Known about the structure:
The chain is of the alpha/beta class. The protein contains 6 helices and 8 strands. The two termini are 14 Å apart.
Amino acid sequence: MEAFYTIQGEGYYQGKAAYFIRLGGCDVGCHWCDVKESWNMEAHPKVNIQDIVAQAKTYPGRMAVITGGEPLMHNLDALCNLLHEHGFQTNIETSGAYPLSGSWDWICFSPKKFKAPHSGIYAQAHELKVIIYNKSDFAWAETFAASMNPDCKLFLQPEWSRSSEMLPIIIEYVKANPRWEVSLQIHKYMNIP
Ligand SMILES: C[S@@+](CC[C@H](N)C(=O)[O-])C[C@H]1O[C@@H](n2cnc3c(N)ncnc32)[C@H](O)[C@@H]1O
Ligand SMILES: Nc1nc2[nH]cc(C(=O)O)c2c(=O)[nH]1
Ligand code: SF4
Ligand SMILES: [Mg+2]
């Protein structure tokens, strides 16, 4: 759908330069989704992976973030192999709603109530990033935390439109439950993609 060089705004690698590759197609249906224009896979032309990687190489950063849409609706083996061949670290942003493909240096798993995650993701994820829309989402977040690898990083990220209400509650929650960390969408504060 699009690709752009920017600063990772969320989660563990927040603040680091990265080349984002956003793939079209998602049927999870989050009503608050940031990128609803990604949902219709047919609306976005297919792009050659050689061309994607060639574009990525024009920038100095060597961290690639594959996102969408739901990137795991596509088989990502060939794209990851090519990125690795060209010296990129491969990171993914996923809801986990589809089986894992590709070879990943970093998996950010952001589960959604609207479509259950696939079981394979729990053992593989390096980062759990739960979006907090209302107060009941903290208990929901804990049910996922209990299923993750012990060394999986845990992040709570306010849903953007609910930030002013939820952020103070997230702050108190993290102070009381320090296994969790706050993740903000800092690219939105910086007005960058
Ligand atoms: C647009 S999604 C694409 C990747 C994948 N479909 C997913 O949901 O993880 C990228 C990240 O943005 C988060 N996100 C999307 N809309 C958001 C919003 N309105 N507020 C906060 N985070 C949001 C998602 O939870 C996910 O972690
Ligand atoms: N700067 C920036 N950081 C991001 N981290 C995750 C994003 C995404 O949409 O997957 C995203 C994004 O869209 N922009
Ligand atoms: S799973 Fe990700 S891309 Fe799909 S609707 Fe939800 S936030 Fe948007
Ligand atoms: Mg985004």
